[in-house]
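Worked example 2:
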Amino acid sequence: GEVDAQRRVRANTVDMHQDETAPKSAQHFDIHHSLFDMRHSDQAGEYRISNREFPRHKYRPVVAPLLAQTSPLVPRASSLFNSFHFLRPLWLLALIPVALIVMAIMRKQDASRQFTGFIDDHLLKHLVVRPNTSQGFRPVHGLTIAWVVATIALAGPTWLREPSPFASDQSTIVFVQEVTPTMLAEDVQPSRLQRSVHKIRDLLALRPGAEASLIAYAGSPHLVMPMTGDAEIIEWFAGNLDPAIMPRKGDAAAQAIALANEQLQSAGKPGSIVLITDGIDDRQNQQLAELRQGPVHILAVAGDQSKPLPPGSPPAPALDIDALKTSADAAGATLTVVTPDGSDLQTLSRNINTSFVAAQQDDEGSRWKDLGYWLTPLIALMTLLWFRRGWMVNWE
């Protein structure tokens, strides 16, 4: 019967599951298709429904409630309910005198009240002449609604947060630059390292006023420039980096990201880490998975197998996009591959903005947005009723 049909529909047509092991990253660059694979979202997981066909007219009452369970509006409504409150709740106490005043007005306007005690109730209701509007919308009703709406507006209803007016509107950036001999390869002109410097300069130009910091790493990480708003000094120091000045050889990407997280914490502002590299040692993945703190965005600066090294170029392996994706998943990072034009920086800037907005929602320095102002147009419309002829509240 209907129970069996429900079981068949649940077992054979609807396959809903949330990927608990999916990477935290929201975007991953696919170099083969030049597309972004939206794999996972922390707020609402990934749900999939099989493409098997079923008689819509027969199972619609059964399937519709099941599909409604996966709607992303459900957690949003729950979040709104949990976040709703009043910024100035003491104003709600003004509803008490409002209720008393309205009750007093309505009692004053009750024509039969002055004859109570002199005429029996069963006769009084036939002797009192009431206005035709007594059962409709009266001025006292409009006054009551206007007072209640105004009181709620003064109480400051809210369920959204906004950044503090004194907070920066730009995300801070910590550039983590790999400085190893492979970064001198010239498959990306003029070289991987010099192209990285150009990308740092262009990204800062896209985000004027943003504070930035610079970290260089090979076998060990080193703070080159602490947080500053001077983009030119960041570019100058990045342009003078060379593998020959690095004290230790190797790949300490995880340690460099840990140092970048310390920089973000000391700055006390929401920000992102931009890791510029041509590859990450897979032995670093375990440490990267344990360092998930600030948002990380990886910019891969290297040529793939289709771009052989030119004559005279220092030796370096080609870009291993699969291995770099694995490392990005471990770090919970987005991955962008360098391009000859500025499309890579546009993508990187959008990823930074997304992380910045998400961090602002959780930032203790943000404040609740007063939404009571949106009720003022309704109050203004209510006042138009008092321009009607004869529309007044009689206090006597």
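Confidence is low (pLDDT under 50) at residues 5-75. The first strand starts at residue 29 and ends at 30.
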